[in-house]
């Protein structure tokens, strides 16, 4: 993984949890392509413990890891439906959005959308 760009992400003194969570999400959305973006990295980037990170995400009743996976899956779903990206393989799209294990991606995609990614792509593109 290429290193994440250093940002001024440290927690601001007295910052409400909702505001910190919003900044964490913005940071993560900008770095979803990095397969090494994990809850540990997220916490480190913001100078908080993983425990604090998990408490922040509890406000939305999801773990940081599940939230990351959901965001990555949604980007993959969008790219698979994009006819301009029909020349890219499913695995290339998955890898581009931070999935290093294609089998895991396929299982996760099917669980989230009810179809394997290749079939979802064919239906979305009307093939």
What does this structure look like?
- The chain has 127 residues and is mainly alpha-helical.
- The chain has helices spanning 17-30, 39-46, 50-58, 64-81, 90-96, 102-113, 117-124.
- Helix 2 (39-46) crosses helix 3 (50-58) and helix 4 crosses helix 6 (102-113).
- The longest helix has 18 residues, at 64-81.
- It is elongated, with a radius of gyration of 16 Å.
- The N and C termini lie far apart (35 Å).
Helix/strand-derived category reads mainly alpha
Portion in strands = under 5%
Q: Helix-strand pattern, N to C?
A: HHHHHHH
Count of beta strands: 0
Residue share in helix: 55-70%
The N- and C-terminal alpha carbons lie at a distance of 35 Å
Instruction: Determine the mean pLDDT.
Output: 89
Secondary-structure map:
Blueprint: H1 17-30, H2 39-46, H3 50-58, H4 64-81, H5 90-96, H6 102-113, H7 117-124
Provide a short characterization of the protein structure:
With 127 residues, this protein is mainly α. It has helices at 17-30, 39-46, 50-58, 64-81, 90-96, 102-113, 117-124.
């Amino acid at each position: 993984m290429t290193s994440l760009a250093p940002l001024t992400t440290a927690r601001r003194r007295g910052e409400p949890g909702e505001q910190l969570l919003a900044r964490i999400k913005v940071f993560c959305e900008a770095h979803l392509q990095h397969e090494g973006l994990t809850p540990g990295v997220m916490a480190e980037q913001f100078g908080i413990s993983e425990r604090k990170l998990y408490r922040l995400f509890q406000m939305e009743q999801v773990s940081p890891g599940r939230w990351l996976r959901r965001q990555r899956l949604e980007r993959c779903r969008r790219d698979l439906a994009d006819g301009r990206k029909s020349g890219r393989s499913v695995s290339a799209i998955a890898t581009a959005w931070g999935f290093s294990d294609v089998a895991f991606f396929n299982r996760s995609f099917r669980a989230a959308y009810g179809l394997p990614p290749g079939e979802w792509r064919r239906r979305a593109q009307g093939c």
